[in-house]
Amino acid sequence: MLLEQFYLACLSQASYLVADSGSRRAVVVDPRRDVEEYLQFAAAHELTIELVLLTHVHADFVPGFSELAARTGATVAIGADAPVDFPVRRLADGEWLRLGEPASGTAIQVIATPGHTPESVTYAVFENAADVAPSAILTGDTLFLGDVGRPDLLGASGRTPEDMARELYRSLHTRLLPLPDEVLVYPGHGAGSACGKALSTDTVSTMGEQRRSNYALAPMDIERFVQVVTEGLGEPPSYFAAEVALNRAGHEPLDTSVEPPTFTSAEAVARTANGWLLLDVRDEQDFAAGHLRGAVNVGLSGRFAEYAAAITEPGQAIILAGSPEQAREARLRLARVGLDSVAGAVTDLSALADSPQLMQPSSRVTADRAAAAIAEQPDLQVIDVRGAGEHADGALPGAVNLPLPRLLTLLDRIDADRPVLVHCAGGYRSSAAASLLRARGYADVTDLIGGYGAWSETSAAS
What we know:
The protein has 462 residues and is an alpha/beta fold. 28% of the residues lie in helices and 20% in strands. It contains 14 helices and 23 strands.
């Protein structure tokens, strides 16, 4: 048996290839849209990819089933209850997918595990089809390491988070927890994903270890479980709704062979007047030194795709600003979350200093200056764009928590006629938020250099 994990750190997303070493037949589970890595692995091991398996309708990224099917001819398969509108093979609970000899080859059994979504399935991988227990389980978003999938995301067909949590409890306790301690657990996401709230940085574990360490698997009755897994859940990122709709409808395969056209700085700035998003993908320091008017900064150094998706309107045309290499990387990472609307790129920013009418710097302040502004400006609005949990652990005085993943839907809570000071943990998210506000017409917006970390250090020193 071959079982290979492909982990994409920038999305905290795991996909898998499973194959029988005798027949060389393979399946890929929850692939990303840039599929070359799977194809190269298959070619290196002389494998034929026959199936693309999906664990559920995803809310946080667009799986590359169209791309892999187009390149290999593989069939796309998903749990029987999946609400999708594209051609798929629907997999029944308990169904076997045999990749090798019926009795001795690698096989996968479909286990219905609703809870995160109604159609969620787990794929149990048997090294030998006749084995009593699987060697590993590919749990998608049902069971994470240190956590379980949140039950409040979109796609529950009118059911409440509490209803879904009860289904999740039954799935865990009747389908997964009875498995032996030595069974390997391979989840769909790791730390940083918005699909859970306490995910581990590990990418593989065992059922025994999860029984010991996962808070959601501790002994408790169903109503206590419902309380534990639903408390402290922040609002999901605003782009999740569009992502679910796209993943239900299906998508065209990604084609990266054609480069988007190049725009001049003047052309890009002019397009912003027509509602286009000018997305500067450089780091916040370079952006602060000087950028095109109306640009929004989401740097490639952080969780770029998720935050870029959160500040993009549905269907909004995007012009990228950065080096040619940065533009290519940004386009790919945007495509992974379904943003195929990149209309062009500005890749020569060297002439900005010679075009002051097109350029503006960012307003950023140190912690000392921020403290003075808070003390001296009674009408100052302090906005914390971190997550709710981070905010609860400490924030600037008087800060209102408007998390960046939902900021686009919360702009009416900020008065455009009053000054604004934005902070996050270290400056990455605040640069994105502050630039978004400026692009939306907020005239007096500043963000805190170094974020709450710098504020805490300065406060401790004084």
